[in-house]
Amino acid sequence: MLDAARDLTCDSGWDGVSLSAVAAAAEVSRPSVYKEFGNRAGLGRALVVRETQAFLDSVAAVLRPGLPDTRAALEAAIHFVLTEAHRNPLVRAVVLAAREGSDSLLPYLTARADPVFDAARNLLRAWLAERFPDQDQVLVDVAADIAVRMTLSHLVLPGGDPLDTAERLSLAILKVLR
User: Which string of DSSP letters, residue by residue, matches 5-37?
Assistant: First the structure.
């Protein structure tokens, strides 16, 4: 069902996805979709959670084992996020729809970002704690928080070349820790 929801979202945007359409595409009954997700919002949340985990697994692969230079590794991860999000059909569909005035899934990147934000922050917090084992954990938390917030901001409102953005963000994040 989530594969069907993803495909439908990539093809026609989240606004065009109904539980009936998902049921038809997944070749299951409509009550089965309702039983699994409760409603359209539940389906959207489940889709975002699954896609976030897959996306963050790729980010983790960039960070680990990672480059020996912390700044280079962080730049590579931020650059990966910015460029891969542009290539990822689902993320691209969400961001493009938001720019065209439809924001039905955008809150998962902004106002209701907990599935995305918390998972990304936890991943980065753990990685930064490994790189800076003697650092005050409050500063590690702050740095991870800044990194995720700023990277998400640049996904929604790109600020220029992804490589330049990755360089600037990593410099700012590491300033917090040094």
Answer: HHHHHHHH-GGG--HHHHHHHHTS-HHHHHHHH
